[in-house]
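Students often ask why we bother encoding 3D structure as a string. The short answer is that it lets us treat folding as translation between two languages. Here is a chain of 323 residues written in the first language.
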Amino acid sequence: MVFSKDAKPPAGAWDEHGHNLLPSLAEHKYVGDFDVSPFAGFTKLHSLELDLGEPYRGGPLWLLMHGEIEYFSATSMYAADQAGLKPVAPYVEAFGADGKWKHVIDDLGFPAGGARTMTADLAGKLPVGTQRIRIWTNLQIYWDNIMIDRTDQNQSARLSEIPLAGADLRYHGFPFKIEGQPPGNVSYVYEKASATGPYTRPAGAYTRYGDVLPLLTNWDDKLAVFGSGDEVALDFDPSQLPSLPDGWTRDYFFVAHGYEKDMDFYAYDFTSVDPLPYSRMGNYPYPGKSFPLDDFHLNYLLEYNSRYMSGNEAHGYAFKYKY
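And here it is in the second language, the structure alphabet:
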């Protein structure tokens, strides 16, 4: 949890070409004037330089960075590796009093998944007096807003869990997608869904439709297994939430634990749902091991994962939306 109050934009922002990015970031316009590689998700090495507004003198210092990444696939990762191209995680340099850049952070992280705000803690990681930093990477990352925050993190907070009251696994279809710029900047119209689409799914046993609440209340090996076009509708019961003290505000965090499997040619066993992940598997895949078949696990498989899909079910492969 990060507390933020009176965050400010950087005093300056430039790319490796010297372009002034501050106006675009202020207007929430994505920036990314870099050369895209033939391998999805990769670019030529590029940088983002930021003026923090004042020299760092110690204490809290956070970057609040909103953006998105064009994810690489297993195929593009394999192809890039064959070409000798390795992913370079975003690393940070600080501009010193000697007029030289110094490497200070190996991996800043990036906004995984869809567009979102990530936090980067710079406290104690920059030399005293640092005012300019530079972030380098060869990943296809686009930013549309960056804020500098120096809020004291010694704040009062209280965490209250809202129990999951209902979970229904069902088919919804494929919501209408609106493509924006840059690549990967998409939004969806949930209410406008097509029952068909240009997707297949791995063959295997999926969780049957209906109530899956017992599968989602504990961190165990009972997984709700679902595929393209499926959804889990969740209901939470906020009735037991405590009242807020005067001057407090409430934020909500969605916490989930699960796994995702791509149907990529270079993903492991991409045509099959199995092998299912489990808590003690170590790495995935787990050669020499197997999904447990004791009473706990076997009863789960028999009771819930009874919806077998071959991946070749007869259906249309085109979107059909009602306008």
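Translate back mentally: The CA atoms of residues 1 and 153 lie 9 Å apart. Keep this in mind for the problem set.
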